[in-house]
Design brief:
By secondary structure, the protein is mainly β. The protein has one domain: Porin. It is built from no helices and 11 strands.
Amino acid sequence: MRCCAPVPLRRKVVIFRVRWARRGGFDYSYSLTGSSSYQSEFKSGSQFALAYGQSAGSNLRWELAISGESHDIEKATLRSGGNTYINTITGETKATALDANVYYDFPVKGRVHPYVVGGIGVTALQLNDGFLDDSTSAMRIQGMAGVSVDLSKKVGLFVEARLQHIGGVEIQANGGSSTAKTDLKISTSGVLGGLRVAF
């Protein structure tokens, strides 16, 4: 009995995806005035996303996705005047993003379809690490590898591994006599899963 045709390989197919992700923790650091520096470490967090896309022929498809995620701070380290202060404090980083992704589906038969993804997007960030409390935006790039499993001709499940890099995050921090104005670079990884519906 022949299985249903892979959804991504059909032309002019509209694809909706809903996904949930568990993203790994991350850290960043920046220098303050004088010889002081500050490092923040954030816990792993959750992401929810909605995406709309279309197949484009030749095993390609494109997607526009909007997502939101949050990470609670784990600890903050202040180094100043030769001393180190480690605090467990209350803080959170939130991100809302719009991404454009291009998928390549490997031409294999059956219900299981591997694929790779590359994408670029813009992220609106809210950073609160106990010293820095600022909002900004930055560009991000990402790469993914995943597999989808057809449940029917129109419905499928998928799981993905993702690497993501956010660069050029411009921040301004003020805390007493110490200030910071620098560019942060944030890299994260995670595993995503969700539901795909094609029309």
